[in-house]
Design a protein that fits this description.
Elements: H1 4-55, H2 63-80, E1 86-91, E2 97-100, E3 124-129, E4 135-143, E5 152-159, H3 161-196, H4 198-208, H5 229-276, H6 283-311, E6 319-322, H7 323-332, H8 335-340, E7 344-347, E8 354-357, H9 359-376, E9 382-386, E10 392-399, H10 431-441, E11 444-451, E12 454-461
Parallel strand pairs: 7-9
Antiparallel strand pairs: 1-2, 1-5, 3-4, 4-5, 6-8, 9-10, 10-12, 11-12
Length: about 475
């Protein structure tokens, strides 16, 4: 279940149900305690009246006697009424029933034998049941005998059916109300989630409309919830990178067409002239065609190397590589070129500097960095190769008076060359792109910095 709506409903609806059950249970038991407390208070008051009635002396004449007679009459009225729910039964010391209220009919109240061991004169209270199934609350106590009254065991009781009926009705109300409000809250939750997910639906529609020709458009960030604002910002950043990548791709296609068209046009023109006027052809024409063909082959080989390195990122090797030996090997390839341009080299790589990496790709990177320095460093200048900087595998430093800081952002683009070298047929502007792609395949960082008029090309370990 991956839907946000379903996940929210799966968590919140049971949460509502649990809260409703807890709240309903709390209300139910609170009401139960309240009704039980009222019943106990009523039973205690009834017991007190019975004690006073049963313990009073013989009737006397006078106003006091009249009050007691009225009081006794109201009590007798309750005990004689079958529907009143008030019950009384007394026993003598031998357990014989002495008196039973008319409201009991043929029923018998329980006589608790625990009265003999009760520590309090107030008696004991307990729940019981009549034979016809009515629930009652019983209060049993003992009255000690005296000169004018015998010892008695007394049980008074009040019917609990009314309380049970009220609790049953209350529980039904709680259940119905709980189901209704849970359903209502669930409906409100579904509506609220649907409304809350509208911005995500609108965002998905905007993303669905993104095409290669509309990468310049950005996703609208207004009226977006705070929770998905970072997502929209990241998507806009992704669109910006895609737009830049597509722009570079278009520029690369244009540059590649230019690089291929120029030598092809020269080769075609030279060959057509040679075919039309063969007597005027010379060996220089054929040399020119050979140089143009070599330039085409170099361009195609570089593009194939770039694609091959980009596709082999997951197939890199990992073994011990001595950087000093690898630098010396790559420098030997450009010794003659450096001697022709009178370039001095200063190698400061430690002989015991060993890292775990792919020697094949490292050779490609170092070779292209040295080639770039040997080609574009001014004549009679110096090239330094070291690993002294922080986290650097290797750093190549050469003078670059013609570079600007704006060039650093495009230096690793494919087919990029400084305008002055655009017509140079020896290089096609893919060396640094190949080195950069190989560095990415090895999870290394290749960067360019300009310090004054010196270019620092650094191959570093990623932090």
């Amino acid at each position: 279940m991956k839907s946000i709506r379903c996940k929210l409903l799966l968590w919140l609806v049971p949460g509502f149900v649990i809260v409703a059950i807890l709240a309903g249970s709390t209300l139910y038991f609170t009401e139960q305690r309240r009704l039980k407390a009222n019943l106990n208070n009523e039973l205690n008051e009834f017991s007190r009246i019975m004690k006073l009635t049963l313990m009073r002396p013989a009737a006397r004449f006078g106003p006091a006697a009249a009050i007691e007679q009225d009081f006794a009459a109201s009590t007798v009225l309750k005990l004689n009424d079958v529907e009143s729910g008030y019950y009384l039964q007394t026993w003598n010391e031998n357990g014989q029933t002495l008196r039973k209220s008319a409201s009991l009919g043929s029923e018998q109240l329980p006589r608790s034998h625990a009265l003999e061991t009760a520590s309090s004169n107030d008696g004991i209270e307990f729940d019981s049941q009549l034979s016809f199934g009515g629930d009652i609350r019983v209060h049993s106590f003992s009255l000690k005998g005296g000169p004018r009254r015998p010892a008695l065991d007394v049980s008074v009781a009040i019917n609990q059916d009314d309380i049970n009926q009220r609790l049953t009705a209350f529980s039904i109300q709680l259940i119905v109300g709980g189901v209704f409000f849970c359903g209502l809250l669930s409906a409100i939750l579904v509506f609220a989630i649907k409304r809350a997910l509208i911005p995500i639906q609108n965002l998905s529609e905007q993303v669905a409309n993104v095409e290669a020709g509309s990468l310049h458009n950005r996703l609208i960030e207004t009226d977006i919830p705070v929770e998905i604002t970072p997502l929209v910002a990241r998507l806009n950043q992704l669109l910006a990178r895609l737009e830049q990548s597509f722009s570079r791709e278009r520029q690369f296609n244009n540059d590649l067409a230019h690089e291929l068209r120029t030598p092809l046009a020269a080769m075609r023109t030279t060959s057509e002239v040679a075919l039309k006027w063969p007597e005027q052809s010379s060996t220089e024409d054929f040399h020119y065609i050979a140089e143009s063909a070599a330039q085409l082959q170099q361009t195609i080989d570089s593009l194939l190397s770039l694609a091959r390195i980009g596709n082999s990122g997951a197939q890199t090797l990992s073994e011990d590589v001595n950087i000093a030996d690898l630098v010396a090997e790559c420098l030997s390839l450009y010794t003659s070129q450096m001697q022709e341009r009178n370039l001095a080299t200063n190698q400061l790589v430690k002989h015991d500097f060993i890292i775990k990496s792919d020697p094949r790709l490292l050779r490609v990177i170092i070779s292209n960095l040295i080639s770039n320095a040997a080609e574009y460093a001014p004549t009679n200048s110096k090239i330094s190769i070291d690993s002294e900087s922080r986290d650097a595998v290797i750093r190549v430093v050469n003078d670059a008076p013609n570079l600007s800081r704006d060039d650093l952002s495009t230096m690793f683009d494919r087919l990029w060359r400084k305008d002055e070298a655009r017509t140079d047929s020896k290089h096609v502007g893919l060396g640094l792109s190949i080195a950069y792609t190989a560095a990415q395949a090895l999870s290394l960082e290749l960067s360019a910095e300009l310090h004054g008029e010196q270019l620092h090309m650094s191959l570093k370990l990623r932090n």
